Every structure is written in structure tokens, then in C-alpha cells.
């Protein structure tokens, strides 16, 4: 066990994977010699050489297109898109190519690629360094979408993503790279060192994709969240003293619907939380699925706590971010006794 | 604005929108197309620096002269047996196209695309590659498969989306795929295969392999960002890849001017990227062979990628859904100054004393027979729209290696819907 922050855990996942499998290679903008703008690939070029860890042109279409070709050859490419906001020029290669290749070739050609990308706001990144585009990918058939919330999960999930036979988009909540940010932007973030999930095994381990994590068991309300919002939710639950069951989805697709269904049927109330814009966000899918499966168990309308349907505003970041106040108001609404009885 | 007094004396800006020279009803006259005499273009060493061959990106590599003789430094000096094999593959491809086009018109499939007039671009290039080199084709290089002796029945099964279609009826006809044939799954999204070919070549190089990759795209698709991504990556990593631009003058109804042909050649794109660029007579099988052989040797000796523009003409419609008489002169194909690739190779063999019209006629007949026999066999496996040939469950297979729960659920829903449909049919 070593104490790690998210970056170190992600770095360790790639290190372990490259050690175990010569076909794993990592590349992206500033990924090679420098080790990435967030240092996620630091030391990998030195350890594994320039043909396995290298810099690329600033060209996301090329990065992902080349990854698809490398995978067709037999490699296991791990491509970094420097910010999720930059992923759009590579969308055709992801959506029309990587995601469809197994299907259109009836399994003869596959694209076992991993696309890592820091996402989410809360770092004063403005509208081009703060986006949460996860629902664009969950809407595409043939891609898995994974979002970790702790160093321990990040390493186990990233190794699982790299070893997965299908394309995986791995979004890293950059606001929690260095500590489990709880939504209180005006106080310094607690470092990962104080969080138990910062204890990370040095060796190989896997957290299977498609399995949610019940971060906190509870009987009164089910809160579905992922990434940074897991920590913001946990803080609110603690502050408000409610007996909520907090589920960290970890993988949006495939989704662990069994865990969600069991929880909502137990608590009778549900709230979904994400930082991404609301309309057609992943929360909409969650709400639809929960009402399909749990309608007769619901005691109140399902609450959605999300970012607003605007670009991420630079100076108004904390008015945009779904923080403690927005969560408290939503929790109050969903916990209201709607039976009419006093 | 025009009312702005300060700007009153400036001329108005004009937006230029390209227009092809000939439209329906016009007499096509290609006398302004510069056709360099065969044999005149120099052949640099395959190790030559890219900046010492800029002239080749603006020239035209030609081997077969008007007298049907092979001349000049690019003559690959192929033996007559190889020439006859190449000719046969081209003739067989044309026969295949004719048969499948007709099958579409007969309602046996939804769609087809011919490569008439462009056979050399795929076939002569394939002859110059090694059998285990990887190809990333666009939709008009069926000739690669035929040059590699791939089963015609297998190709037709795909065109018919029938029960023996290895792609399980999932792809539009002609979007072939075969790993064994070194032929990457064709995408309907254009030029996506270009960066993929570069990635494959980079992987081959990273692994110390000896195999190279080749890709093809149309001149129209060279306007896609993927083309430029591919050229950038190929140049940066000196990838062992051959990037072919098939300049067949037309992208559906848009002439090559909409991809930039009025300003410069497509081979000249290579100059900006700092890679070797060759412009080749795409209807001259020997020139295509020689250019590919040159580029393959360059790639295999770690001298980097080559961009080859094949100057050719799309003699027929874009696809069975297209009607070129609506937008271009009907004369164009006949007037095309570089002739027909099959006729030119045939005449060359005749000039060598290795072939004659009778043998050509016999071969054409044989090709037509071969295609007919294959079609009959393939049609036994079904044709499109006559019964659902693939089990319904296959709809959900291969989205992922392992079917996730939500797809399993949808599969059950689909099967229930099908049972309900059958029950309705029974009660009627």
C-alpha cells in the first residue's frame, strides 16, 4: 500500500499495465517527455521508452484515429485527451469508428482503446476547461463510460478499462485530483492523505466495470452520483444529518441498475446529481430508469441536481456549480412529506 | 457596409464559388488537361529527401505511351504473366461490378458502387504490395480483394446481406471487411480510414515488424480533417504508410474543384507536410504499380510515408443511387484524355506480342461466367429483403464483447415484440 492522490493512482495504473503487457502504450498532447499537463503520465516515457509513451500533435481526431489503427494492429492504446472539452474533434473516430468497429466487422476488428480525459469544473477553467460531456458518450452504443471518485477506484477502474476488450472513455474529475473537494470552495481542500481511499496497492488489481459502489448505506433517500459530486454529496448528507444511501455509479455504461433499483425500492426516494448540464444529461436517463423500475415505491418526485444549461461561466463558477446549497434545497424537497398527512 | 463613407471607393468583395467546366449537354473538351508524355518523369531514389522531389507532386508519372509501350525510369519491367494476371483481376473486377450493379437494379440488394475506370488504382497497387501488408480502403477499392484472390461468393454474400454474410448483414453492401484478406472494415464516414492506417503503420514500426499499411481516399474526402490528421501524424512519426488519393474528378455531384483542385494538385498536399508526394496517371496500371512499389520500398526502409495522387476518372455514377447525367456532361468518360485502364494494359500486352483480341474476348467471357457462377451460389444463401436471414438475436451481438444487462433486456423486448407480431399475423 502506498498513499496516493488521484494522479499518482492513475499513473500507477498505467505503469502496472505497461509493465504487464508490452502492447499497452500511452500517448497524447504533452504526455511523453513532460508527463502530461496534470503529470498523469510522468516517468512513463523514461521507463518504457519513446515508442510506448510519446507526445502527439495537437490533433484529437488524429490521436483517436491513430489509436483505432494501432488497436487493429493488436496494441492496447491509452490515449489522453488533455481536457474533455477538447474531445470533440475526435468524436467521429470515437463514435463512428471505435464504437462501431466490432459490430460492423462482426467481431473481426475491435478497438480496445482507452481514452483518458480530465473533465469537470471547479478549477476556474472557464468554458473550455470545465465541461462534463459524459452523456454524449453514454448515448453512443459501443462505448463504455467510466468515472472514478477516489485514488483507489481510479487505479482499479483504469486497469479494468485498459484490459477491457472494448473502447472505454475514462473521465477523470480533475477537481479531485489532489483532494476530495466537498463543494466548499472557500475553504482549503482536504488532501487525499486524510481519506482512506488514498491507500492504494502498488500492484495490479481491478475494479470491474459496471459495478457501482455504495459509499454510504442509508434508509431514507437514495442519492445517485459520480466523480467530484460523490464528495460534495457526502458532505451535504453529513451536514444535514439525513440517512441517505449514497451510490457512486463509477461506471455510467454499463450501468449497475440492480444496485440502484434495490436501493430505491428500499428508501422510496431518489435524487440524481451531476455537474454536467441538465437537459439530456445522464441524470435524465437515471430518472427514466428509476421510474420504470421503482415507480410504485417512490414517495416523492425524483430530484435532479445538476449544472445549468449554460456554458461553464468563468467568474460565476460557484453560482453554476451544484454545491451544498443546491443540494440542501433539493434534499429538502425530496424529503418533504407529500402524503398530505401532518 | 456600403453606406460607410470611408469605404466608398473600395471594390465590392466577391465570393468565388467553383463551377465545373462542363454540365449536361456541354461538349466535354479536356484539351487543357496537361498530360505529360510517358517516360519523361524522373524516378528519384526511394531514399531521396522529400524536398528533392517537389516536381513529382506537380508532374504525372506515366509509363504506358500512346504506342502502348512501357517507357522510362518508372517502367516496373513486369513479366508478361504478371501483366496478364493484373489484366485479369481488372477485367474480373469490372465483370463483378456489372453483375452486382444489375443485381441491385433487379432488387436483389439495396445499393452498389462500381469502380469502373478506376480498377488500376486498387489492383495495380495491390500487386505492388506484399500479401500481408494491411490495406485501409475506401468504398471503391473492391479491386484489392479481387487482386488478392478473395472469394467472389464471400463478397457477394456481403452485397446481398444474406445468411452467409460474415458481417451478419450489418453493413451497407460493398462495405467489406476481412482480417485474413488484410482489408480493414470499410466505413461510410469518409477518410476515417486514413489516420487509422497511419496508426496501424506506427504500431507496425513500434513493434519492429516489416509490414506496411496503405490507405485510399477520394479527392473529395481529402478535404476532411481526418486526411490532414493522417498526413500530420504520418509526417511526424515517419510512418511506414502509403496514402493514396484517388482523384477521380467527382465526389457525387461535386467536381474536384470543391476539394481544391483548381488551386493545386492533390499530391502537392505532401509538400506542405514534408512527405514524399507523387502524382500518377491512375489509368496506367504500370505507373500505379511503379509508384506503389517505390512508396512501399521507401516505407519499408524507414524513409517514411508517401502521398500518391492517382489522376483518374469516375466513369460511372457515384453509386446505384446516383444519376450523373443530372450534373455532368455525358461525353466526359469517353473524352477522358487518359483513356481506360483495362484497354491500356490490354493494348500494352498486345504490343508486347503477349496477348491478342481473341484472348481478351475469351477472358472477358470467362470472367463473366465466373461472376455468374459465383452470383448463383451466393443467391442460394439469400438476397436482401427476402426473409430475415440473420437470427434476430444477432442484432445485439458484437456491440460489446460481453453483452451488458441493458442490451440483454432490450433483446428480450425485441423477441417479445416479434412474438407479438407473429401472433397478430396468425390471427389475421
Automatic annotation (TrEMBL), chain B:
UniProt GO molecular function: branched-chain 2-oxo acid dehydrogenase activity
Names of required cofactors: thiamine diphosphate
Alphabetical list of InterPro entries matching this protein: Alpha-ketoacid_DH_E1_comp (IPR050771), DH_E1 (IPR001017), Oxoisoval_DH_suAlpha_N_dom (IPR022593), THDP-binding (IPR029061)
Keyword Oxidoreductase: yes
Annotated Dehydrogenase E1 component domain residues: 88-383
Domain 2-oxoisovalerate dehydrogenase E1 alpha subunit N-terminal: 11-49
EC number: 1.2.4.4
CDD domains: TPP_E1_PDC_ADC_BCADC
Similarity comment: family membership: Belongs to the BCKDHA family.
Role: The branched-chain alpha-keto dehydrogenase complex catalyzes the overall conversion of alpha-keto acids to acyl-CoA and CO(2). It contains multiple copies of three enzymatic components: branched-chain alpha-keto acid decarboxylase (E1), lipoamide acyltransferase (E2) and lipoamide dehydrogenase (E3).
Protein name: 2-oxoisovalerate dehydrogenase subunit alpha
Upper classification of the organism: Bacteria, Pseudomonadati, Pseudomonadota, Alphaproteobacteria, Sphingomonadales
Amino acid at each position: 500500500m502506498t498513499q496516493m492522490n488521484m494522479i499518482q493512482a492513475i499513473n500507477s495504473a498505467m505503469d502496472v499495465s505497461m509493465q504487464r503487457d508490452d502492447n499497452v502504450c500511452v500517448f497524447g498532447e504533452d504526455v511523453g517527455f513532460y508527463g502530461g499537463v496534470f503529470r498523469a503520465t510522468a516517468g512513463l516515457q523514461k521507463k518504457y521508452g519513446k515508442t510506448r509513451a510519446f507526445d502527439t500533435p495537437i490533433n484529437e481526431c488524429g490521436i483517436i484515429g491513430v489509436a483505432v489503427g494501432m488497436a487493429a494492429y493488436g496494441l492496447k492504446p491509452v490515449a489522453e485527451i488533455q481536457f474533455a472539452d477538447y474531445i470533440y474533434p475526435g468524436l467521429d473516430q470515437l463514435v463512428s469508428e471505435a464504437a462501431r468497429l466490432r459490430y460492423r466487422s462482426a467481431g473481426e476488428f475491435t478497438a480496445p482503446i482507452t481514452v483518458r480525459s480530465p473533465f469537470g469544473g471547479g478549477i476556474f477553467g472557464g468554458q473550455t476547461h470545465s465541461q462534463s460531456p459524459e452523456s454524449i458518450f453514454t448515448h453512443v452504443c459501443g462505448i463504455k463510460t467510466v468515472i472514478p471518485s477516489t485514488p483507489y477506484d481510479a487505479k482499479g477502474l483504469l486497469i479494468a478499462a485498459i484490459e477491457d476488450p472494448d473502447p472505454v472513455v475514462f473521465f477523470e474529475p480533475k477537481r479531485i485530483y489532489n483532494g476530495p473537494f466537498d463543494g466548499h470552495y472557500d475553504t482549503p481542500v482536504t488532501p487525499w492523505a486524510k481519506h482512506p481511499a488514498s491507500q492504494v496497492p502498488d500492484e495490479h488489481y481491478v475494479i470491474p466495470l459496471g459495478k457501482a459502489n455504495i459509499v454510504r448505506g442509508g434508509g431514507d433517500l437514495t442519492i445517485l452520483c459520480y466523480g467530484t459530486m460523490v464528495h460534495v454529496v457526502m458532505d451535504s448528507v453529513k451536514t444535514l444529518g439525513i440517512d441517505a444511501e449514497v451510490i457512486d455509479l463509477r461506471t455510467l455504461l454499463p450501468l449497475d441498475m440492480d444496485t440502484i433499483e434495490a436501493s430505491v425500492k428500499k428508501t422510496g426516494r431518489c435524487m440524481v446529481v451531476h455537474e454536467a448540464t441538465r437537459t439530456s444529461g445522464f441524470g435524465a436517463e437515471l430518472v427514466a430508469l428509476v421510474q420504470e423500475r421503482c415507480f410504485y415505491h417512490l414517495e416523492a418526485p425524483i430530484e435532479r441536481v445538476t449544472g445549468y444549461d449554460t456554458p461553464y461561466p468563468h467568474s460565476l463558477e460557484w453560482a453554476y456549480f451544484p454545491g451544498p446549497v443546491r443540494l440542501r434545497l433539493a434534499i429538502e424537497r425530496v424529503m418533504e412529506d407529500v402524503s398530505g398527512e401532518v | 457596409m456600403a453606406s460607410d463613407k470611408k469605404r466608398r471607393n473600395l471594390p465590392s468583395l466577391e465570393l468565388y464559388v467553383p463551377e465545373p467546366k462542363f454540365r449536361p449537354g456541354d461538349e466535354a473538351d479536356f484539351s487543357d488537361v496537361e498530360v505529360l508524355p510517358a517516360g519523361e518523369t524522373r524516378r528519384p531514389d526511394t531514399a531521396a529527401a522529400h524536398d528533392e522531389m517537389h516536381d513529382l507532386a506537380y508532374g504525372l508519372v506515366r509509363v504506358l505511351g500512346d504506342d502502348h509501350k512501357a517507357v522510362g525510369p518508372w517502367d516496373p519491367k513486369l513479366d508478361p504473366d504478371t501483366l496478364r494476371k493484373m489484366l485479369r483481376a481488372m477485367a474480373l473486377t469490372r465483370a463483378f461490378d456489372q453483375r452486382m450493379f444489375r443485381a441491385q437494379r433487379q432488387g436483389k440488394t439495396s445499393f452498389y458502387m462500381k469502380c469502373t475506370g478506376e480498377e488500376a488504382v486498387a489492383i495495380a497497387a495491390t500487386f505492388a504490395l506484399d500479401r500481408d501488408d494491411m490495406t485501409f480502403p475506401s468504398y471503391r477499392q473492391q479491386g484489392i480483394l479481387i487482386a488478392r484472390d478473395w472469394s467472389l461468393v464471400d463478397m457477394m454474400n456481403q452485397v446481398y446481406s444474406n445468411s452467409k454474410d460474415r458481417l451478419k448483414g450489418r453493413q451497407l453492401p460493398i462495405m467489406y471487411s476481412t482480417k485474413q484478406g488484410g482489408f480493414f472494415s470499410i466505413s461510410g464516414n469518409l477518410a476515417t480510414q486514413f489516420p487509422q492506417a497511419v496508426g496501424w503503420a506506427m504500431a507496425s514500426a513500434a513493434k519492429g515488424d516489416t509490414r506496411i499499411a496503405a490507405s485510399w481516399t477520394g479527392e473529395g474526402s481529402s478535404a476532411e480533417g481526418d486526411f490532414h490528421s493522417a498526413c500530420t501524424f504520418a509526417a511526424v512519426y515517419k510512418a511506414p504508410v502509403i496514402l493514396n488519393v484517388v482523384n477521380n474528378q467527382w465526389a457525387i455531384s461535386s467536381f474536384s474543384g470543391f476539394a481544391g483542385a483548381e488551386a493545386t494538385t492533390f499530391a502537392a498536399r505532401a509538400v506542405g507536410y514534408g512527405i514524399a508526394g507523387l502524382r500518377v496517371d491512375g489509368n496506367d496500371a504500370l505507373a500505379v504499380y511503379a509508384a506503389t512499389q517505390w512508396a512501399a520500398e521507401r516505407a519499408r526502409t524507414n524513409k517514411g510515408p508517401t502521398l500518391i495522387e492517382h489522376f483518374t476518372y469516375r466513369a460511372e455514377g457515384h453509386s446505384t443511387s446516383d444519376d450523373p447525367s443530372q450534373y455532368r456532361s455525358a461525353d466526359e468518360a469517353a473524352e477522358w484524355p487518359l483513356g481506360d485502364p483495362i484497354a491500356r494494359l490490354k493494348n500494352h500486352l498486345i504490343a508486347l506480342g503477349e496477348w491478342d483480341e481473341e484472348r481478351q474476348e475469351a477472358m472477358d467471357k470467362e470472367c463473366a461466367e465466373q461472376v455468374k457462377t459465383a452470383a448463383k451460389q451466393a443467391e442460394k444463401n439469400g438476397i436482401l429483403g427476402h426473409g430475415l436471414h440473420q437470427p434476430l438475436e444477432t442484432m445485439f451481438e458484437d456491440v460489446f464483447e460481453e453483452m451488458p444487462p441493458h442490451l440483454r433486456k432490450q433483446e428480450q423486448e425485441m423477441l417479445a415484440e416479434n412474438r407479438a407480431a407473429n401472433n397478430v399475423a396468425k390471427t389475421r
